[in-house]
């Protein structure tokens, strides 16, 4: 598994991703990533592309969740 974060250009609405909310420390070991479907894609950011999930949570994409 690669640690490469996707870019905003690689993301599409409806893709399931793992995000970290903006008010969480992205480097913290005890940060619990959230998983959900992308509703809106904002822009690339050093912390990962900023998105809003369909459930309304805004955060930075850490990785794309692939169906097993």
From TrEMBL:
Q: Do you know which InterPro entries this protein is assigned to?
A: DUF2196
A matching Pfam family: DUF2196
| Domain of life of the organism encoding this protein | Archaea
Protein name as it appears in the record = DUF2196 domain-containing protein
Species the sequence originates in: Natronococcus pandeyae
């Amino acid at each position: 598994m690669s640690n490469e974060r996707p870019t905003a250009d690689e993301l599409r609405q409806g893709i399931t991703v793992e995000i970290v909310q903006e008010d969480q420390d992205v480097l913290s070991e005890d940060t619990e990533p959230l998983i959900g479907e992308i509703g809106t894609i904002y822009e690339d950011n050093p912390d990962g592309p900023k998105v809003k999930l369909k459930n309304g949570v805004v955060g930075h994409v850490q990785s794309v969740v692939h169906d097993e």
